[in-house]
Specification:
Layout: H1 2-20, E1 27-32, E2 35-41, H2 44-47, H3 54-66, E3 74-80, H4 84-92, E4 97-102, H5 122-138
Parallel strand pairs: 3-4
Antiparallel strand pairs: 1-2, 1-3
């Protein structure tokens, strides 16, 4: 598809520019109705922002352009399979289709030592009720 060739070419150029800036060379584009709404590359180092992944930046830019957060009628093209953080943002934005060129490289290991610990205590039931009431009122 000629339009897809244009998207992939654009993403490769953006990823190359990111590499020159010493960013991990990942680029993403949000497409809606055969129009590229946004195209971004990783910018975490320059912005000193842990959330400045290409996918998140592209989604935020597209949402701003469309003046809505629900991007269910859009597609996301990405040079590399999105990380877990980006996958959750993609799901929250309601994007239904993500197309990427490569899986996560084997040399990229998870160096995180973060532990996630649930602390069930006297506040758990109160908070559970708050969440239940909130979503029940929404439906």
């Amino acid at each position: 598809m000629i339009f897809e060739d244009e998207i992939w070419s654009l993403l490769i150029k953006r990823a190359q520019k990111a590499a020159v800036r010493d960013e991990i060379p990942v680029a993403a584009a949000v497409v809606c109705e055969n129009k590229i709404l946004s195209c971004c590359s990783n910018d975490k180092e320059r912005k000193k922002d842990i959330m400045a992944h290409a996918e998140i930046l592209a989604i935020k830019k597209a949402a701003k352009k469309l003046k809505r957060w629900n991007l269910s009628d859009c597609m996301l093209y990405v040079s590399l399979k999105p990380c877990q953080m980006c996958q959750e943002v993609i799901k929250q934005s309601r994007i239904e289709k993500v197309i990427y060129l490569l899986e996560k490289p084997e040399f990229k290991k998870d160096f995180s030592k973060t532990q996630f610990i649930i602390n069930k205590n006297i506040y758990s039931n109160t908070y559970q009720q708050l969440l239940s009431d909130f979503f029940q009122n929404k439906r």
